[in-house]
UniProtKB/TrEMBL annotation:
Binds 2 Zn(2+) ions. Mg(2+) binds at residues 179, 287, 289, 442. One of its GO terms (molecular function) is alkaline phosphatase activity. This is alkaline phosphatase. Belongs to the alkaline phosphatase family. Residues 1-22 form the signal peptide. The keyword Coiled coil does not apply. The active site is at 228 (phosphoserine intermediate). SUPFAM superfamilies: Alkaline phosphatase-like (SSF53649).
Length: 680
């Protein structure tokens, strides 16, 4: 097309469309026009996987988009055409083989920019919408879904049903997620935990032994920085989503449970194969990364409902046939014992037990569970204790009131990621040797400790993940499952972390004034060598300072020469470049005399440190996620699917392909709930 012709077309398009392209504040993500189709343009699908379709027609009442007609016309039509011989548009309900849904109406408000937000001036929008529930596209190919609204306006979505072979190549998938983990963090963890001689490592990380390395791009469907909810959704469903959304595309309606859902790999795997599902995390178990395995809501913070969904499936998601996980291990007792944080105040320990789960609450009990039975293990209130506190500074576990029965006592006998993952693998192996299993194991506090700028704890969590990966691979070898199991280690997003040199903490402490203290940072040749891999006798009198597990953790967490490390955007904080022995760091606090939502450097966090003024909004008390691609390590059947650079959703399509979960067939015909006897 010539430039002049293009300009003409572009101006015609602009004349008939609202102006909300490329804004950071959106009326509704993925919907720049007044006609919205979910799944949106460019969505990919697995043949046979269930999803909902949501249509919305928007009529702005006021604000910059107002047209003078605030009444959405409910007479819209929706057709789907498949490219190729039978390319005629077909009414969607006919194609899906479902009844035509009824029209619903509602209103929502949004801020058009920061000025409107400051002034609390929302633009209002009236909506007429429709939802087609529990449908699937079964014939691979490219489709054009067309919403025709307001007497002839059109929103077209191109949909791609991937042509994926249905032959199952792996019996099991073990998916490790280092939440927030980047290549830079792996590099730093290796440096503090593995000895090198003249620039050559003498040992390496378990991750370093994986044959295939890829990079996934983590962008959301409607923002380039993701959170863990929508990135987990992408990894488990093959659909990108919106910040805070789990297993749905976020629509504009008030009900957080009616958003258009997409089926997760856990649901698909159980529906087709009857195999076992394990969910393990060091976070509170209702947190986004474990939650996205079974929950379908656009609000990740509805933690009670998330836990309910682990057991019963999403109650309002009637068609998944979800039977519960075989293994559910983590923290987050506050959604289990009866209290205001558990769904409808119910006792979920009791409800799980009623469904035949054995319930354990400490590491000792976990070690001796009956691996023939399903197991729920909840080991603390909130997030579990960090590796560094459990192993090096155990006094920090006291006084936290995190006992999993909620009685305000301490949870002193918590397992780590390794103990939970290995026990989970034993259960899955025992119960599902024949049909196979799928486990997601999350090192959650890499992210959580990066958020609070507690780099030592974050790297400790990363090294625990690596140690867990090593032990899990040994277990798979020992039990003869290594050739049948695809092992993936990846992240859901990163943080802008890196190391630029070393810090001489003794010189740092001896200087007065922040500008002088900065002279303690050693760059280039003065970065020197890692002191973390050798125990420092001059500091060794305190046994707590020295930890040598023989498993490639630092021998000394508190050497004189530490790392000059940090993240690229942060709140106000003080920095002294050394391990926080009293427990996880709190870098910024609100102070009396200022609005409670404004944060300042905490002077007890690093009393002798230098003041670093923040670069984030003053409402931030933590660091934030960043843009970086994240690594994907793979080993086992189908490992080759994970090399190269691709989107986060491709991790789902790779796992689904390997497990034989693509079920091509004829559109409108339901794939069978169980694919007959396991095809493996
Ligand atoms: C739209 O109307 C509502 C209700 O009158 C009002 O509160 C809001 O400030 C208006 N928004 C704009 C952008 O004018
Ligand atoms: C929608 O269609 C119905 C039936 O054809 C008609 O009665 C109604 O006036 C239409 N509404 C609008 C807003 O066009
Ligand atoms: C089901 O949806 C209703 C409203 O649509 C909501 O009140 C309820 O909490 C949901 N139930 C669960 C278990 O999520
Ligand atoms: C672990 O849990 C069991 C079962 O509730 C209990 O009997 C035991 O005392 C607990 N052990 C520790 C160390 O807390
Ligand atoms: C800090 O914020 C918390 C939570 O919003 C609030 O409860 C507390 O009162 C605030 N403290 C100060 C000093 O503003
Ligand atoms: C930090 O910011 C404050 C103002 O908020 C300013 O007075 C101070 O000089 C800054 N300090 C540094 C070290 O940049
Ligand atoms: Zn995070």
């Amino acid at each position: 097309m010539s430039p002049s012709k293009f300009a003409l077309v572009a101006s015609l398009l602009l004349a008939s469309s609202p102006i909300a392209y490329g804004q950071t504040f959106q009326r509704l993500g993925t919907c720049p026009t007044f006609g919205c189709v979910f799944p949106p343009d460019q969505a990919d699908f697995l043949a046979g996987a269930y999803f909902d379709v949501r249509l919305e027609v928007h009529a702005p009442v006021n604000g910059s988009e107002a047209t003078g007609n605030p009444n959405p016309n409910p007479n819209f039509t929706f057709t789907i055409a498949k490219d190729g011989q039978r390319g005629r548009p077909t009414n969607a309900a006919t194609l899906f083989g479902v009844r035509e849904p009824a029209v619903e109406t509602w209103q929502f408000g949004w801020y058009e920019d920061l000025f409107a937000q400051d002034a609390k001036t929302k633009s209002l929008v009236n909506v007429a919408g429709k939802a087609y529930r529990r449908v699937s596209l079964n014939e691979p190919g490219t489709y054009t879904a067309t919403l025709t609204y307001n007497n002839g306006q059109k929103t077209e979505a191109r949909w791609f049903v991937r042509d994926i072979p249905s032959r199952r190549r792996a019996k099991n998938v073990l998916l490790f997620i280092g939440d927030g983990m980047t290549t830079n963090m792996i590099t730093a963890a290796r440096l503090i935990a593995h000895k090198s001689v003249n620039g050559k490592y003498q040992t390496k990380m378990a991750l370093d032994s994986f044959p295939i390395l890829g990079h996934q791009m983590t962008h959301s469907v409607d923002s380039y920085i993701t959170d863990s909810a929508n990135s987990a959704t992408a990894l488990y469903t093959g659909h990108k989503s919106t910040v805070n959304a789990l297993g749905v595309y976020a629509d504009s309606s008030p009900d957080p449970f009616d958003d258009p859902k997409v089926e997760t790999i856990a649901e698909l795997f159980q529906r087709y194969t009857g195999g076992g599902v394990g969910i393990v995390s060091t976070a509170f178990i209702a947190d986004a990364t474990p939650a996205a395995m079974t929950a379908h809501t656009r609000l990740r913070a509805l933690y009670g409902q998330v836990v309910n969904s682990f057991l019963y499936g999403q109650t309002n998601w009637t068609w998944t046939d979800w039977k519960g996980p075989d293994v559910l291990f983590g923290g987050g007792a506050e959604q289990f014992y009866p209290n205001k944080n558990s769904f409808q105040g119910q006792d979920y320990y009791k409800l799980f037990a009623q469904e035949g789960y054995q319930v354990v609450n400490n590491a000792t009990s976990l070690a001796s569970i009956d691996t023939a039975k399903r197991a729920l293990g909840i080991f603390s209130v909130s997030n579990m204790a960090k590796w560094l506190d459990r192993n090096v500074y155990p006094a920090n576990l006291r006084g936290k009131k995190s006992a999993p029965n909620g009685d305000g006592g301490d949870a002193l006998d918590q397992p780590g990621l390794k103990e939970m993952t290995l026990k989970g693998l034993e259960v899955l192996t025992k119960r599902h040797r024949k049909n196979g299993w799928l486990m997601m194991s999350e090192a959650a506090s890499i992210d959580k400790m990066m958020h609070v700028l507690d780099y030592e704890r974050a790297l400790g969590e990363l090294l625990e993940l690596d140690d867990t990966v090593k032990a899990a691979m040994q277990y798979l070898e020992k039990t003869g499952q290594a050739d049948d199991t695809l092992v993936i280690v990846t992240a859901d997003h990163g943080h802008g972390f890196d190391v630029a040199g070393s810090v001489d903490t003794k010189y740092f402490d001896a200087q007065s004034g922040d500008r002088k203290k900065r002279g303690a940072v050693g760059i280039y040749q003065e970065s020197g060598l890692s002191q973390y891999t050798v125990a420092d006798p001059s500091r060794g009198a305190d046994a707590n300072l020295v930890y040598s597990s023989g498993a490639n953790f630092p021998a000394n967490w508190d050497p004189r020469y530490t790392l000059s490390q940090g993240v690229m955007q942060f709140p106000d904080h003080k920095e002294d470049y050394r391990v926080k022995k009293g427990g996880p760091r709190v870098p910024a606090v609100n102070i009396t005399g200022f609005p409670s939502g404004e944060y300042f450097a905490s002077y007890v966090d690093a009393p002798t440190g230098i003041l670093i003024n923040g670069t984030l909004p003053v409402s931030a008390d933590q660091g934030v996620h960043s843009l970086t691609d994240v690594p994907v390590f793979s080993k086992g059947p189908c490992q080759e699917l994970f090399g190269g650079v691709y989107g986060n959703i491709d991790v789902f399509y790779g796992m689904a392909q390997c497990l034989g979960l693509s079920r091509p067939g004829k559109n409108g015909a339901r794939p069978p709930n169980h694919g007959g006897p396991p095809s493996y």
